[in-house]
Amino acid sequence: MHLTRRSTTALVATTALLGMASAGCAAGTGDPAPSPDSHQDVAVYTWWSTGSENEGLNTLVEVFEKQHPEIDFVDDGVTGGGGGAAKDHLQSRLENQDPPDTFVAHAGAELQDYIDEGYIQDVSGLYEEHGLTDVFPEGLIDLLATEDGKIYSVPSNIHRANVMWVNPAVLQENDIDPSGRYESIDAFVADLEKLRNAGMEAPLALGTTWTQVHLFETVLLGSLGAEAYSGLWDGTTDWNGPEVTAALEDYKTILGYTNADRMDLDWDRAIQRVIDGDSAFNVMGDWAVSGFDNANQEFGTDYVAVPSPGSAGTFDFLADSFTLSAGILDEDSAKAWLETIGSKEAQIRFNKVKGAIPARADIDEDEFTEYQKMAIKSFQEDTIVSSMAHGAAIPVAHLTAITDAATRFNREVQEGGGDVPAFQAALASAAAA
Ligand code: BGC
Known about the structure:
Layout: H1 8-21, E1 40-45, H2 51-67, E2 71-75, H3 84-95, E3 102-106, H4 112-116, H5 124-129, H6 132-135, H7 138-144, E4 154-155, E5 159-160, E6 163-166, H8 168-173, H9 185-197, E7 204-205, H10 209-224, H11 226-234, H12 242-255, H13 267-275, E8 281-283, H14 289-294, E9 304-307, E10 314-318, E11 320-322, H15 331-342, H16 344-354, H17 370-381, E12 383-386, H18 396-414, H19 420-432
Parallel strand pairs: 1-2, 1-3, 7-8, 10-12
Antiparallel strand pairs: 3-11, 4-11, 5-10, 6-8, 6-9
Helix pairs in contact: 2-15, 2-16, 10-11, 10-12, 10-18, 12-19, 18-19
The structure holds beta-D-glucopyranose (BGC).
């Protein structure tokens, strides 16, 4: 993957200027100057540089090249799970008027700042043109649309965040129900303690900062329940309230059962601990399924995937979604990319490797794995809440403030402390900002 971009916009702009300077003639030939659009390419920005993420991107490119052979794909992205570093880098490019033609972001509140700044364009016209309004579930369209009914991205997939990945053999060896299902956080903590007493240092595998925020989100959900969890984002749940204090205490307790080297691990290495049996559990979005597949693990036997503790009946939603940048010269190529993203072929092939479910509802479930069939059912039947850690629930600035507070708290817990009142106050002031 390219770490620096070949600036499509700059390149085309230069060609255009040269064309003007030579008064409409290609230098020295007398032939008409090439139109700025004669070479089409599309600069696509993602952070999908490893494992299933990179495989998924390659699949999208293959479908794109088949559907639009006249346009070259330019990989314009960066590296880093969860996209945290990507977001910062992207932000500086957008501020410097150097946008990629299209970038992946999370559908929902994360797009709001980009919309307010005028960095991305309304693409609802493309939904009409390619019939997406008819094939995306109505509930999804509602999650994608802003208050004025505009839509600013085309989702490639829907991921579920509240999934716990479990090594059933480890549980069985310790006389614990191998299903890994926990109706409550307390029941989960009781088994963490049992595993710890049996000599397992870190029964719950955890990774770096953003994965800690991911775990935090699922503890809030499992402790508060779907309604009060959603209330954190629309202001109906008080961040200073006693239920939140209890959820933060739960988080602190759970952190006590995680691995000390967590800051050094991205999500895939935390999953590896479960595969290796060093930990019994990891909570991660369902892109994690690829880690098990790549290690030839059998779903249902070598590993199971269940709702994170206390969150059965809820689908914690996020969607990777591609935008149309403002201020680019070749909008048609970017729109062609978005057309591919919404197409049936891309949605099937991409999600087969990415572990997510398609955004389109007109796809035969039999195309997908057992895990994905479960996720499709849950998305259709369960209560849907929006992911905080992955941009669906809150804008970037709010998530950054939560991440800072959670990172501080994690460090304190690791050092044997963990000031819950200070953490709660920081979260409340992040919400009020
Ligand atoms: C994205 C996923 C990605 C994961 C890990 C999430 O925010 O939505 O597509 O696989 O981060 O990088």
